[in-house]
Amino acid sequence: MNQRKVKSYRPITLLPVMGKMLEPLINRRLIEYINVVQGIHPKEYGFMKWKSTEMAVMDMVEQKADVALKKIEGWAERFKMDLSVEKINGILLKGNLKRNLVIRFWGRLIKRVTEMKYLGAILESRIAFHAHVRYVVNNGVVKFQRLRAVAPAN
């Protein structure tokens, strides 16, 4: 770098101190005005205090689940089927949510669980198979003990 050449230096601009002080005040007043007078759509999540992209995803999942469950409700009513809502559980297989999903089926809240049995396998919310392995081992031990009780000891 040659200190004698003008091209060796870049101009520096500093924001005035008043601008730095006024920006948060103007920002707060503008957001208050938009919220009170104009109104922001409740589904607006970008750059909003107390809202996040996780909340946007949660709302979308809840909406999609509600649509799917409404179709199941219609199908069950059409074929005059009665479903046991008390036995319906939900499990989140991926991610950590800061709040629970709020999904209703026939007006009742679906309970969220950390593990559940599905088609003979025990699913866990952490996507580990510890509970399933314990279940299979315990089941095997019980069957072995029954077999040993019936079989002659030699």
Q: What does this protein structure show overall?
A:
It comes from Dryococelus australis. This is Reverse transcriptase domain-containing protein. This protein is mainly alpha-helical and 154 residues long. It has a domain at 14-44. The protein has three helices and six strands. A hairpin with a 2-residue loop joins strand 5 and strand 6.
Radius of gyration: 30 Å
Can you count the beta strands?
Answer: 6
Percent of residues in helices comes to 40-55%
How many helical stretches?
3
How is the biggest beta sheet arranged? 2 strands, parallel
Strand ordering within the main sheet: 1-4
Instruction: Show unreliable segments.
Output: none
Sheet-strand content, in percent, reads 5-15%
Tell me the series of helices and strands, N- to C-terminal.
Answer: HHEEEEEEH
- Rounded mean pLDDT score: 82
Distance between the termini: 94 Å
What is the overall silhouette? elongated
Estimated structural class: mainly alpha
